Amino acid sequence: MGDPAGIGGEILLKAWRPDGPKLLALDDPQRLAQLAARLNLSVPIRRVSSASEAMHVTDALAVLPVLLAARVEPGQPNPANAMAITTSISRAVALAKAKSVGGVVTNPISKAVLYAAGFPHPGHTEFLGKLTGGVPVMMLASPMLRVVPVTVHVSLRRALDSLTSAAIVATARITAASLRRDFGIANPRLAIAGLNPHAGEGGALGEEELTLIAPAMEVLRAEGMDVSGPWPPDTMFTPAAREKYDAAICMYHDQALIPLKTLDVTHGVNVTLGLSIVRTSPDHGTAFDIAGSGRADPASLIAALSLAAEIAARRLEE
User: Fold this and answer.
1) What pTM does this model have?
2) Cβ proximity of 228 and 220 under 8 Å
3) Residue 79: CB partners within 8 Å, gap ≥ 6?
4) Using CB atoms within 10 A of its CB, is residue 124 exposed (0-12), middle (13-18) or buried (19+)?
């Protein structure tokens, strides 16, 4: 569902095709039907009672109802609907764990709205980890670049304080395993970003490269992993540099997401690694400012649906 006051419903309706991937939406069917009419989108809505029933729906968007508590005003998020938002996520995860669906593709949520309703998790990623019992790692992926931040939804100050060699090692291990299993890369190459300007200049501009990052890389190399770095963050995302690795392990959230979204926000996909289920999402937010206007671009959601289908197909071949 995502936040119903955002663009999630619109991009879902625009992404649906009769001959496209088989979709099961967990949402309020009346809300989606009204939105389709408002935006003049010819998408028939079919209420279903199970994932198996949805498999037989070919001429409409199948919707497993998750009813909203309050009327939706586009661009006006309402904490009263927070329970429906989180319920749609937990039900989708349950379906994936039961193998009733191949994977979960989530629409954007507003963390502030959920926090106002008492949501105890920093974000989607951490909530999914709780639901699955996995160790979630966030990857942003596009045809141009894959990035993985070691620290995620914390302030920059807390990110620096919480960065450890053990966290870098754990993130790199999960990333390499996922690149092999889910992306079909037999021998993943990981570029490890530095933290400080010029990767610390041998300690002159910061010591974390020497005290945290280099020791982590030694552990990874001892395990046979192909890692390079620490890379100066200001040069590791150039076209020539990107040819030398399959994913960049970054030290904090914006170090990873700024280059990805600058290079290819249209086709960027958020992929949660380290889970027993497949989960992807668009790489953008709720866009409350344009919600209900008909201007939302579904490209990232379409890319997320496509990637989820590819990963699910690979896992079925195991």
Assistant:
1) 0.91
2) no
3) 113, 114, 116, 117
4) buried
Tokens of 15: 């992404």
Indicate the pairing of strand 137-141 with strand 269-273.
Answer: antiparallel
The residues, ordered by sequence, that sit 6+ positions from 35 with a Cβ below 8 Å of its Cβ are 9, 10, 13, 41, 292
Domain positions in the chain: 1-133, 137-274
| Topology of the domain comprising 1-133 | Isopropylmalate Dehydrogenase (3.40.718)
3-state SS, residue 69:
coil
pLDDT of the chain along its 318 residues, tens only?
Answer: 999 999 999 999 999 998 888 899 999 999 999 999 999 999 999 999 999 999 999 899 999 999 999 999 999 999 999 999 999 999 999 999 999 999 999 999 998 899 998 999 888 888 999 999 989 999 999 999 999 999 998 899 999 999 999 999 999 999 999 999 999 999 999 999 999 999 989 999 999 999 999 999 999 999 999 999 999 999 999 999 999 999 999 999 999 999 999 999 889 999 999 999 999 999 899 999 999 999 999 999 999 999 999 999 999 887
Architecture of domain 137-274: 3-Layer(aba) Sandwich (3.40)
**Residue 25 β-bridge partners:** 63
- Three state DSSP letters for 143-188: CCCEEEECCCCCCHHHHHHHCCHHHHHHHHHHHHHHHHHCCCCCCC
Domains 1-133 and 137-274 share a fold: yes
